[in-house]
Structures are given as structure tokens and as C-alpha cells.
Amino acid sequence: MKRSLHLSRLPDLFVPASLLGASALGQPECAALFFACFTALSLLSLFTGQALRTAFAAQPGLRGVRGSVKFTLLLQFVALPAALGIARLTPLNDVAALWAYLCAGCLYNIEHTFYEYLDALGDRHGAALCEGISALLLMTGLCLTGGPGSESQPLWLIGFSALSALIAAAAGLVSGAFSKGKMNARVLLASPIAALRTLLYPAAFALTALLPLGCGASVAFFSGLTLCAFCAAPFRRSPSESAPMNRGLALICATCALLSALFHLTGLLKPVQNANIYAGFNPTYICLAVALAALCAFALYGNIRRKER
Higher pLDDT residue, 153 or 11? Predict the structure, then answer.
């Protein structure tokens, strides 16, 4: 039963929280573009980076784990040229900036691969440290990059992304015996469920664009994404494992509904319009996004059966 406490990994929410921080600090476009490029690279690499945790859970030996990591890294390097080629065909004025974000997304996919590998080795502290450093570097890179246009400096983002990937790769390689293990495509078996877990919340959130909610979409989106990341697990939880999460998600939904009603009836905390902070902080939008993320997390990882199988 104690093992169920480790299904949710605190480091999983570091990167989404860094994107939330960058959005709140005045770089919502940069954070959104980075996430879009990161997701596009994940799609072109068949979501193998996101499928690693599930694949590792079904592989009892470290040789198989290392083989899956090698195959995933190979797909990352194949996905990047494909993404750059597709971006070149798009009718955009600033293709070079888009290339920079795609390179950053690829580098963070590589970092995430080694993060999962370190966790699979049992080095939870090392994995958490690498993920924390990467999240800090990502937020710093996004803030230094600046907004889109002529004033944008995307090389900052590439530099910090490369540093984070280098740190994670070094930590994974020095763990020893990385060369052992034949490359295998076992991770592809978990790719369909990884695709669903990656795309369900963004797709559901996209429907909120039809509502007259105004500004604050980026902060709201990453608030919900952080909750989804914290609830992630390699498989659907058993009834005993899911019960605490179910209660927590129900409490979150009830709180969001209560706060939204309070904001609507009293007019408190209207969308902030202040040049000194992010001028898109919309509490009602955030409550909606967090409640939506809670529903998605329950659909992906929750369980309402009364008995164990």
C-alpha cells in the first residue's frame, strides 16, 4: 500500500510549472509556442518519450530499459529534421524563430528521456534534481527570449535547453552500463496510450476557446496541465490506489465551482490589467481549466470499482 504513494511523482510537475511561471511572468506566447513545438516533436517521435514510463513498467530487466531508451533517442533525432522540414513549408515570416523553438522542444524531449531513465534506475533524487534544474533553465530561457517579433532572442532558449539536455544526458550516462542492452521498439506498444494521455487535456481545453472567457488562456492552460502531470501514472490506478486521488480531484472540482460562482456573483478578482505583472490573470478561466484537468486526470488514471481484481 505504501508503494501507491509513489505513483505520483513530484518532479513530473516541474516543467509544466515552469511554463506556468513563464506565462505568469509575461511570456505567455513563448510558453505556448514552446509547448506546441514540444508536442509536435512528441507526435513525430510517436510519443515514445511519454511512453517510456509505461514501457519500463513492463520491462523487468535493465538491458531492455536501456534498449528502449536508445530507440527513443533515435526517434527524437529523426523527428527533429522532419519537423524542421515541415516548418520550412509553412507560410510564416519568422521561420528561424520557429526552428529555434523546435530545436528546444527536441532537446527537452531528450532531457525527459534521460529523466525517465534515471527514475527507472532507481535514482529518484538524481532524476528529481535533473528535472528541477531543467525546469528552472526552461523558465529562464523563455523569460530571456522575450515576446515574438524582431525583439525575440530565441538563442537564449536553445542555449538553456541544450544545457538541460546535456546535464540529464551526463547524469544518465555516468550511471553506468548504458552501452549494454540491445535496441528494442518495445516502447511503441505504449505509444497509443501515451498519445491519449498527452493530447486529451489540450484537446479538451481547446474547446474553451468557444467560450467568452477573454484573456488568460496560457496561465489557465498550464495551471491545468500541472495538475494533470502530478496525477500521471504508468497505468490506471487500482481501486485502493485511486481512492485518495478521486477524493482529491472531487475536492478540487468542488472548490473550482465554488470560486467561479463567487467570482461571477461578486465581481471579485476580475482579469488583471496591470502593466507591472502579466495582464491576463483570469481567475475564472483558471478555475475552469483546473476543473477540466481534474476530469481528464480521473478519466485517464482514476478507478471507481469497489473491489480489486
Answer: 11
